[in-house]
Amino acid sequence: MTDLPAEVWRALGTVLDPELDEPITDLDFVESCTVSPTGEVSVGLRLPTFFCAPNFSFLMVADAYDAVSAVPGVTRAVVALADHHASEEINGGVAAHSGFVGSFEGEATAELDELRHVFLSKAALAGQDHLARPLVDEGVGPDELAAMTLAEVPDSMELRRLRDRRMAIGLPYDDEAPLLIHGDGSRVTAAQVPLHLRRARLQRVGIETNGEYCKSLLKTRYSEEAKARA
What pLDDT score was predicted for residue 226? Predict the structure, then answer.
């Protein structure tokens, strides 16, 4: 028998904060998740601040709704964001399948596909640092790195994440794909490796720093609210 609550939680784990490239479950953005015996699912989300960007917030709520709704056995899904200045617009728009523009009529002028692409591209660049840095530390040089394919990189969660990010934005991700590529998918030459890795490192550090900052804000925000209610 399928463990539906576990499957729903697993589905939520595929939903990423677009800027931080981390699952909302790991970030503690899922405040509640209930599954009824008849397959009705209710998910409550929360974010680090009341003024988190509406576009990022909408993406997470919409992605959570889509992920949960796709789980076999789920008969109805409700995903609601709490404690946010645009909760009403976001929750209503996602429930009505209105899209970002329809949810913020008169304010938003485009859907969020381009924004998603931008952040997945940043994550794909940062992922190259995750995989190349240990090799550099072991003494692998620019010539070898420039020639290396994904098949030659030891399997790891980071490698699988990189493949997923590249696949999502149409970049080479199969075994023959180069480890180091530019944003247009072209191979990084040996001469370009040092600068490329510096850029990848900066991108990775930026993402990770933002992630730690947001986790700290979330912890502070909700610990203070808990104290206020006590």
Answer: 61
pTM above 0.85, yes or no: yes
Amino acid identity for residue 61 in this structure? V
Side-by-side strand order, sheet with 76-81? 30-35, 40-45, 76-81
Dihedral of the alpha carbons of 186, 192, 196, 197, in degrees to the nearest 10: 120
Nearest to 162 by CA among 186, 178, 143: 178
User: What mean pLDDT do residues 164-193 have?
Assistant: 98
Is the per-residue pLDDT at 230 higher than 60? no
Q: Are 101 and 89 in contact (CB under 8 A)?
A: no
The yes-or-no verdict on residue 55 having pLDDT over 70 is yes
The token duo for 162 is 């990189």
Judge contact between 81 and 90, C-beta under 8 A.
yes
